[in-house]
Amino acid sequence: xxxxxxxxxxxxxxxxxxxxxxxxxxxxxxxxxxxxxxxxxxxxxxxxxxxxxxxxxxxxxxxxxxxxxxxxxxxxxxxxxxxxxxxxxxxxxxxxxxxxxxxxxxxxxxxxxxxxxxxxxxxxxxxxxxxxxxxxxxxxxxxxxxxxxxxxxxxxxxxxxxxxxxxxxxxxxxxxxxxxxxxxxxxxxxxxxxxxxxxxxxxxxxxxxxxxxxxxxx
Length: 218
Hints:
It is a single chain. The protein has about 220 residues and is of the alpha/beta class. Helix content is about 50%, strand content about 10%. It has a 5-stranded parallel β-sheet with strand order 2-3-1-4-5, sandwiched between helices. The longest helix is centred in the N-terminal third of the chain and has 25 residues, at about 60-85.
């Protein structure tokens, strides 16, 4: 069966996790093998880098370099092999998060991030015999859980002690949200905007409708 790569994006507190589990179960009910993973993280090396990114103070460029280093290992060790086996890969965050958090939130140049994206998600072997040097890995579908920063902050305050990202103010998350919107405009065929402020059942309906529209779920 053809592989499927779906990413879950949105500001912290948008409520992605429970819907990842429900979508996993939906695919498994159809006999699909599902790899569920996350970023930063997904491999032993990437999880070590995740701990640094979430907890150690650093500037925006250092943050981006660590995130993309973790992503490279994740892509090589987990994502590409699973897709090559024809699996469904569900990933909590991918490169859109870098454009949103390190780009929109931290003000890092989009050109720098685009170059890192090409290096890290490219694979010369996948493009062998083609004129272009790299085939850059991108999701087949990105579910963007859109939520106001004020509501996200309210949810996080009730959930747990914040990490270095979650502790940033609403102005930061407003910039992150705008960056997600800008990113979605550049790839409307890939993004599905989910109203994450709706009741949980209504959010799941949006998620399942987006996936069914691609013909991946019955």
